[in-house]
Write a structure and sequence with these properties.
The protein is of the alpha/beta class. It is built from twelve helices and 15 strands. A hairpin with a 4-residue loop joins strand 2 (105-108) and strand 3.
Length: 468
């Protein structure tokens, strides 16, 4: 059975059944992925995605707007707002006053990229990053926006980016999960749901594995007291024999998924403790990430963990840092959030570069949307809030296949609308990630409910201007 016929099987059986039948007849090795090999030569082997959940403000980070300083406190022109959709949180305000950032911007690096004073460490790596100022999305609230950014659709139920990569490309280290997720401990904010790193309609072995900062990085990984490793091996072997008998009686595709996860958990008992042990890291390396690096669960510690997992062959590593939803107290909130992530984000780039890993590791930094140029709620001389703004927001990229020192796209004087033809939609974002990993986004598909689905839905193009 060739792959084209496999895709047609959806008319007679479920997607999971068709997938398992194809795998059986073609000796499919899940560690290699359904593609077998990349569609074209990849420039990146792995991804580290630093996700700033809540929507960082562009005005306090990467988009300097001097005109706003002159208009601070004055009404945002209606010609700028146009027909833009506003949320219910600020859409009924009688006044929408311009809120200029109190933080200064300077040009840095050979490229002269402007960066806020809140990000002094990121300013040191600007020649390694491509800053996209003109990301945009249709989603205006956190739930749909996060889901769109991670799964290519605003409605829950589709596979996440990491799950698609796991399904397509497999793993470079069968002893560790190909897709790992970590969250900053104690950092509250908008809730993050497991669907953001879920498998959707793909078989369950492709979902992300959450690493936690506690003694057991992966829940239920260690053997219970009194159970030896040899006993666990005997139990798994017996389960495997029983499940094979069951498969002969009933064609249940979930059997293979369960067995794959059992085996992965068994292998991780030996590989995970070593991967998360930072005791052998040098003082020089620890200083790159900042003083919090030795505290499990901090963003700095997670960044170091990401580097350790990347060099051990984990293909997609996602770090979630919450608390960027600055509806009020924006100046102070942005100062705190930037202070929590700035040094570690830059340190990660420096560490990867020092080890020769940056050239084939794609690093991404950004959130689900931007913030408004006007103040949400009452505005004082030193304080203001910002509402959600999906029409334009910044993200930066570094590493595998990225042209460092690049600024892509421009916004208007209020960072309210895109003012150039250079822009990147969420589908373009996903297309570009897949391209760098050697995947043609139109060809990586999975048949479900009678149609072929892909991460980019029926849209998307590769933004080649930021590629080296």
């Amino acid at each position: 059975m060739d792959r084209r016929n496999f895709m047609k099987l959806g008319a007679s059986m479920s997607a999971a059944q068709a997938f398992n039948l194809y795998a059986k007849e073609n000796s499919f090795d899940p560690t290699k992925g359904i593609m077998g090999k990349p569609h074209h030569k990849p420039k990146a082997k792995r991804v580290i995605y630093l996700y700033m959940a809540g929507g960082p403000s562009q005005f306090e980070t990467f988009d300097n707007k001097p005109v706003m300083t002159k208009m601070h406190g004055k009404e945002l022109p209606k010609s700028v707002i146009g027909n833009t959709r506003l949320t219910g949180m600020s859409g009924n305000q009688s006044s929408l006053p311009v809120a200029a950032s109190p933080y200064k911007f300077k040009k840095h690096g050979v490229c002269g990229m402007e960066v806020s004073e809140l990000l002094p460490h990121t300013a040191k790596i600007v020649d390694d990053i491509a800053l996209v100022k003109t990301m945009y999305t249709e989603a205006i609230n956190h739930g749909p926006a996060n889901t769109f950014m991670q799964c290519g659709h605003q409605i829950a139920g589709r596979p996440s980016i990491g799950a698609w990569l796991n399904y397509g490309l497999g793993t470079d280290n069968p002893d560790l999960p190909p897709f790992v997720v970590m969250k900053t401990k104690g950092r509250g904010g908008q809730p993050l749901f497991a669907r953001l790193w879920g498998n959707g309609f793909l078989p369950s072995e492709y979902q992300g594995v959450m690493f936690r900062p506690e003694n057991d990085p992966v829940l239920f990984l260690n053997n219970p007291a009194g159970i030896a490793k040899q006993s666990r091996r005997q139990v798994l072997d017996t389960i495997q024999k029983m499940e094979k008998i069951k498969k002969q009686r009933t064609f249940d595709p979930q059997i293979d998924s369960r067995l794959a996860q059992y085996e992965m958990a068994y292998r991780m008992q030996g590989s995970v403790p070593e991967a998360v042990d930072i005791s052998q890291e040098s003082e020089e390396t620890l200083k790159l990430y900042g003083k919090d690096v030795i505290k499990p669960g901090t963003f700095a510690n997670n960044c170091l963990m990401a580097r350790r997992l990347a060099e051990r062959g984990v293909k997609f590593i996602q770090l979630y840092h919450q608390g960027w939803d600055a509806h009020g107290g924006c100046p102070g909130q942005m100062k705190s959030r930037c202070g929590e992530v700035d040094q570690a984000s830059a340190g990660l780039i420096m560490d990867l570069k020092k080890r020769g890993l940056l050239e084939d590791t794609l690093v991404i930094w950004g959130g689900e949307f931007g913030r408004t140029a006007y103040s949400q709620g009452k505005m004082s001389a030193t304080n203001y809030g910002r509402d959600h703004h999906p029409a334009c927001f910044p993200m930066w990229f570094a590493g595998g296949g990225i042209k460092g020192g690049t600024v892509y796209g421009e916004t208007d004087d209020f960072s309210y609308n895109i003012a150039s033809k250079e822009k990147m939609h969420i589908h373009d974002f996903h297309s570009t990630i897949l391209h760098l990993l050697g995947i043609n986004h139109e060809r990586l598909t999975f048949r479900f409910q009678g149609r072929n689905f892909r991460l980019t839905d029926v849209h998307g193009h590769v933004v080649k201007e930021i590629l080296s």
